[in-house]
Amino acid sequence: MGADSETDRRLVVAGHGPAAHRLVEALRERDTAGAWTITVIGEEGRAAYDRVALTSHLDGADLAYPAHGGGVTVVTGERVTAIDRAARTVTTSAGRVAGYDALVLATGSAPFVPPVDGRDLPGVFVYRTIDDLDAIREYAADRATGAVVGGGLLGLEAARAIQNLGLRSGVVEAAPWLMPRQLDEGGGAMLRRHIEGLGIAVHAGVPLRALEAGEDGAVARIVLADGSAVDAGVVVFSAGIRPRDELARACGLPVGERGGVVVDASCRTEDPAVWAIGECALVGGTVYGLVGPCFSMAEVVADRLLSDASTAVFEGADTSTKLKLLGVDVASFGDPFAGPGEGALGVTYTDPVAGVYKRLVVSDDAQTLLGGVLVGDAESYGTLRAHVGGGLPGTPEQMLFGGTETAGEDLPAATVICSCNNVTAEGIRCAISDDSLTDMADVKDCTRAGTSCGSCVPLVKRILDAELTAAGIEVGTALCEHFDHSRAELFDIVRAGRITSFTQLVQEHGRGRGCDICRPAVASILASLGTGHILEGEQAALQDTNDHFLANLQKNGTYSVVPRVPGGEITPEKLIVIGEVARDFGLYTKITGGQRIDMFGARVEQLPEIWRRLVDAGFESGHAYGKALRTVKSCVGSTWCRYGVQDSAAMAIRLELRYRGLRAPHKLKSAVSGCARECAEAQSKDFGVIATENGWNLYLGGNGGMRPRHADLFATDLTDDRLITYIDRFLMFYIRTADRLQRTATWLESLDGGLEYLREVIVDDRLGICAELDAAMEAHVAAYSDEWRDTLDDPGRLSRFVSFVNAPGTPDPSIAFEVERDQIKPVPPAVPR
Questions:
Q1: Degrees (nearest 5) of the Cα angle 526, 59, 201?
Q2: Distances (CA, A) of 763 to 552, 651, 698, 718
Q3: How confident is the model over 85-109, as pLDDT tens digits?
């Protein structure tokens, strides 16, 4: 049936999902002789779209794939209902009859809904199509609670969608932990902590018994096997899939015992004219539910249709996954479940404070990487996945904690870089070399690597950079695929062009709609340049989670309130106000290591009430939620301490009031010590000051955290004014030139010339920009306005502070506390039995 022997052959594709779309595109690209005319019949009322990004439809994203070109007829809103294999025709639900020389079944799968009582009640949905999401959104407008049955990848996405619709959300998973097909028990437990910390309740380890109706006859609760119940005015089933193999069954084609159209390695059924790809196909005894294997099947069938001599076969697939669920990085690669009885050892690291879990599975001689799980920090996913089945590029502890970073040129040729599209390292290198590719957009267009889930993009970029460097071509520093500029270049573009919105910037200097890399980065730039209130118009939609409510989100869905206390100095009157506010709103109070008083446990609708009282008492935002100056810590200094040689408290207050609200690529911390005894720990801060007999010593580029770094001594015996001038220039130069989310420590280390170069820039004015830096800081100081005071004066901004968008003023009933040491604390989640 090859194109080399006959022309004008008829291909019918039953179904128009991602696999069908890939098949048609692959065939069109390779069928240069026009041997096939193609008819695609899809039952949805729209053409194929990106199901991997389904949830983003609720945010207004356009998921549609590009339309097929000539030679392709797409029929939407009709379903193939019958196949006549003898006559080689299909009949649709609209009575249409189409003849074929080859038929490809790409009917996909259907969500599995367990046969429990109540599954047909109003308010029960599945989560599979755009129409499903539209129906959920419309119905949820009148409900307060929702729950998802199924704690896998799509189930957690659905839980996020329900929460974003303003409902109290939960997940019910029969297995003992979340994502049981991808994560081990430790990884599932850590993911649960993250999910519950965002206010989504998790009920794991107890099967579903039934759904019960409320007084209106619609679903109201989920009843579990142990008799407990979960309130849910909306229930979404995402408990797995079942292959859509009914067409094959009806026409006598073999199907698997548990479903799926039986095909061989070429994806052909026992009828030589009928093929099956995607989630409806059973190949090698497996039905694949990931986009990567489905695309690979489509490529195989395209090759087979074009040549009888083709030997293309589907050889299985890499089921590694990496995604960001509700802001949490989660990754699984290779075999994450192998144990000692299988010649494997597990190397595990857990940091419950940071919410990080990492497990590598290695051979019993610790030389070969077999698989692993990453939760909370998946930065090393690309490197690790590329080495599955091969030698470790470092010791297991180096792979867990960093210290090794595989360069693009070091990856073996056969390493699968993009598992979604089955693109190898050699394939990417050849494309770069043969087609003279120089940027990521071209590499993605040419190879399709990074165009599906996107998790391989960093590794593809490293290969591109390595190839360009080897060819003597300067490597670009583009922030992401939507901008050809680095963050520092975008900063200058925004500043020079007086750009005030992301939309304006991307229209004039970028492309597309942006992503989770460039949108927050641009938001930071706009905020650094004082282009409007953080919650003003488009600005609000760009911000990170905490900035949305000008408060830090806590593990039980409440928020912390942190008023600014410059230098830790506070009057008795203000202490009384804090005490009264904490008492009246029932908040947990704590004096922090940064010499502030934090109040925890505030519901979102309480935040404006709390801040009204604090602002009226003279407090302002402490910016604990922002990428901004957090605090300037100090000792009491020479005013009280017998060892003090300068007034450190006064200097700390002066610095904090000068730099308050200063937005930066990363949070900023500072401290001032009144003598060399260093009680304020200034050398562990982004900028630290230590008093001397003759003035102040300035230290730059320190930080605490997981990878602490002592600050470097920058200048000695400075006067007050000279000290502030140098700090002004340091901060403004950092804000202008640092990469996204880059702390001052790593920024300083990345400067060509390091500390000495920085000294030349801000002391010797090597670049001739000191006057600009000075003016920029003066403009910030002059324009400062407290974000919370401005918010309280604006009814439009206040309207966002509600727990439920459809029930303003209604508190979240899922928030509960218990008392410990005379203060509240969140009630821990119930442990599954």
A1: 105
A2: 37, 21, 13, 12
A3: 999 999 999 999 999 999 999 999 9
